[in-house]
Amino acid sequence: MSEKPWSESLDEMLAKLNNGDFVDQSLYEFEKTINDSVLGTQKKTTKRGNVYSTTNYKTVVPHISRTVENAKYSSRYLHIVNCLENIVYDKYPESKKEGYQKAITYYLEEIKKHQNSLKAFDQQVSVDMATYKNKVRTSNTDDYLRGYYDALLMMKKILNNSKLAKLAELANKVGK
Question: How far apart are CA 23 and CA 71, in angstroms?
Answer without folding.
Answer: 61
